[in-house]
């Protein structure tokens, strides 16, 4: 197969600075002074891919795949103090190998290894060359699992273990020097591993139940934020994050769901999501406690049209999507307590309701 995508994104951000007779920069200028940053990012992606499987009579199936991807990125950004005009491209060859073995008509063992790739790119924000560009990320991903069906195929279960080894892992973070900005930066090395368990049961002709649990450990093996190192110089020892847990990766996830088929082409789904404790920053100073979200959806289908209504976070659970530790840091001794300042939290979505219309062709 083949894949092609072309995208262009425009962004304008900035502030109005008050002016006046005694303003150190804008004195004698009547009215507020605007300082805007305008940016245009252009992305172009092309890929060629192939995958095929071969089944041996003994019940062994071998799968092989190969993907070539090329990504072109460019940025044109300017403001009152500087400008960045740059372009770059990244490409990679991504192999995949897999095998599955049928122990019986209901039980299958499988294993796979695959290479992953995320293109590099440019940030909307950040005036320095260090913060403008980030590199592509690569990973090797390994999985071993067992799937089974029970009760005449009405119950399906799966258990799997996985391990991933990352190079130039991409981290999206807020800028401590300006909390209104965010940028992408690379962590040199990272690893993650864990297990997943899933089950689905046809409880009746109209009700399907499902459950899933995932346990994961994810860690930065080597990570220096070179954007902040470039700003702070030798003091940037406080931005060595090797050995810390990867932020935004919960220690566990859980899901319970029920899908109910109703008369008159109606259906309803209820879902409870459980999210374990996770860190909101690479320094592992701002922590989000475990929480649960109740979501749901009701839909009406007719031919290839669907009209639906949904609700998310029905109990209006409070949680944070991101955070930035703004407490005072002694960069000569980063491990010292930081009593002054605050931790800035960006809240997650509150209770939300919506409607939608979709069509498939």
UniProtKB/TrEMBL annotation:
Q: Which UniProt keywords apply?
A: Cell outer membrane, Ion transport, Iron, Iron transport, Membrane, TonB box, Transmembrane, Transport
Q: Which GO terms describe its cellular component?
A: cell outer membrane
The family database entries (SUPFAM superfamilies) matched by this protein are listed as: Porins
**PROSITE patterns listed in its UniProt record:** TONB_DEPENDENT_REC_2, TONB_DEPENDENT_REC_3
A GO BP term here is:
iron ion transport
Query: Where does the TonB-dependent receptor-like beta-barrel domain lie?
Result: 25-314
Would I find Acetylation among this entry's keywords? no
Main subcellular location of this protein, as a coarse class: membrane
What is the membrane topology here? Multi-pass membrane protein
Record Gene3D superfamilies: TonB-dependent receptor, beta-barrel domain (2.40.170.20)
Subcellular localization is given as: Cell outer membrane
- Know the name of this protein? TonB-dependent receptor-like beta-barrel domain-containing protein
């Amino acid at each position: 197969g083949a894949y092609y995508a072309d995208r262009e994104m425009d962004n304008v951000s900035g502030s109005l600075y008050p002016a006046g007779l005694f303003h150190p920069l804008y004195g004698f200028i009547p009215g507020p002074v605007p300082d805007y940053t305008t940016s245009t990012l252009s992305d172009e992606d092309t890929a060629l891919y192939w995958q095929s499987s071969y089944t041996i009579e003994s019940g062994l199936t071998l799968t092989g795949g190969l993907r070539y991807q090329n990504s072109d990125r460019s940025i044109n950004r300017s403001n009152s103090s500087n400008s960045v005009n740059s372009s770059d491209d990244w490409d990679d060859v991504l192999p995949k190998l897999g095998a599955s073995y049928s122990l019986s008509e209901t039980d299958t063992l499988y294993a796979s290894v695959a290479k992953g790739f995320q293109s590099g790119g440019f940030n909307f924000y950040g005036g320095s060359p260090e913060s403008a560009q980030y590199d592509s990320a690569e990973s090797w991903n390994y999985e071993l699992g067992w799937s089974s069906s029970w009760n005449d195929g009405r119950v399906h279960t799966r258990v799997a273990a996985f391990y991933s080894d990352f190079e130039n892992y991409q981290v999206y973070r807020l800028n401590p020097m300006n909390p209104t900005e965010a940028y992408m930066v690379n962590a040199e090395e990272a690893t993650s591993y864990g297990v997943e368990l899933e089950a689905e049961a046809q409880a009746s002709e109209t009700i399907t139940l499902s459950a899933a649990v995932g346990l994961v450990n994810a860690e930065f093996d080597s990570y220096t934020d070179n954007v902040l190192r470039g700003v702070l110089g030798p003091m940037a020892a406080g931005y060595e994050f090797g050995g810390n847990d990867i932020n935004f990766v919960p220690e566990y996830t859980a899901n319970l769901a029920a899908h109910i088929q109703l008369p008159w082409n109606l259906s309803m789904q209820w879902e409870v999501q459980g999210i374990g404790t996770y860190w909101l920053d690479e320094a592992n100073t701002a922590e989000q406690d475990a929480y649960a979200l109740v979501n749901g959806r009701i839909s009406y289908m007719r031919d290839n049209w669907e009209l639906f209504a949904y609700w998310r976070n029905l109990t209006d659970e409070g949680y944070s999507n991101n955070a930035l530790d703004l407490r005072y840091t002694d960069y000569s001794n980063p491990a010292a307590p930081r009593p002054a300042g605050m931790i800035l939290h960006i809240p997650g979505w509150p209770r939300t309701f919506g409607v939608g219309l979709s069509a498939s062709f």
